[in-house]
Every structure is written in C-alpha cells, then in structure tokens.
Design a protein that fits this description.
single chain; 176 residues; mainly alpha; 7 helices; 6% strand
Length: 176
C-alpha cells in the first residue's frame, strides 16, 4: 500500500508517520509520537465500512490526514457536513443500525470517526470500486457529499505534493 500511495502522489501520508505497529488495545493514531497502532482484531468488528487490515490502516491514516494536512479553515468548512471535529470524544455505545447519512456505524460515533471513515472509503475506491459504489448507492446524498468533500481535499493535497516534487527535484550528492 505504501508504494501505491507514493506512486499516486499520496506519499505525504506515510512520510510523516514514524512508525506503524501491532497493538493489543483498540487501533489508534498518536499525533504526539506520529505513530499508528493497529489491532488486527478490530477487523472482525462489524462497525467499519470494509473489514480488511489495509482498510483499518487507511482509516487511521484518515485521522493523520486531518491532523497534518487540514487547517482550521478546512475543518470549519467541513463542520456543516460532519460536525465539530474538535468536540470532546466520549465513549458511546456503537449504534445497532447504520444511519444512511454515514458510511458505517463507526462513523456515527464522533465527527473525527466520520471523517476518517469517509477518507478511508474515498481511498478504498481504488481497491474495491464496485463495493464502494454499492455502498454509496445505498446511502443518502449527504453521505456521498461527505465522501466527495474528503476526495476533493485529498486531491488538493496530492496535487500539492506532486507540485512540490516537480518544483524541487531531489538533490544529488557530488561525485567523488
């Protein structure tokens, strides 16, 4: 997956992550240490849109994307769709049924999870386009707008990354 992100110009997502490790507690992203912890057992929980380890990683990268690439202005513009990203995170019971305004039940727990799940579904299109299409067709226009909004932000960051690479070619060390 890292090679795919690098080729597509989304390598900036991995570029600032210092470590990815397997953990026993719930999967997480830690902005203080720039690490991601993945618990393979989280894949079996039926709350995410797709149940794959790679999807779990993309979801955690979604949190990282928001923290590292989106400014306060971007978050404010997303607020009408997702809610306040910075609102206090409370452990709430997972809903039994998925609201059609969200891509998954897990997305309903907090605006941060809604954005991360929408980010993951947006990127997951490249791996399972039919499954993502079927998922989004079963959702409301609001849910599709959420995924599209995240897609536009990802595309903007991808273009920034590619422009940075083009404008500043890698420095070569002098020959000896």
């Amino acid at each position: 997956m890292g090679a795919y992100l690098e080729r597509s110009g989304l390598g900036f997502l991995f570029g600032s992550v210092r470590g990815i490790r397997t953990v026993r507690q719930e999967s997480f992203h830690d902005m203080r240490t720039l690490t991601i912890g993945l618990n393979p057992r989280d894949v079996r929980r039926p709350f995410a849109a797709f149940h794959r380890r790679a999807y779990l990683l993309v979801h955690e990268l979604g949190h990282h994307f928001v923290e590292t690439c989106l400014g306060k202005g971007d978050r404010r513009r997303l607020e009408p769709l997702f809610g306040d990203y910075d609102v206090r995170y409370r452990r709430a019971p997972k809903p039994r049924r998925c609201d059609r305004d969200h891509v998954s039940r897990y997305a309903m727990t907090h605006p941060a999870e809604d954005i991360a799940e929408s980010f993951a579904v947006c990127l997951w299109r490249d791996w399972e386009p039919r499954a993502v299409r079927a998922l989004l067709e079963a959702r409301t226009a609001r849910c599709r707008r959420k995924v599209a909004a995240i897609g536009r932000l990802v595309e903007r960051e991808r273009r920034r990354e590619l422009n940075t690479r083009i404008s500043s070619p890698p420095r070569r060390s002098p020959r000896r």
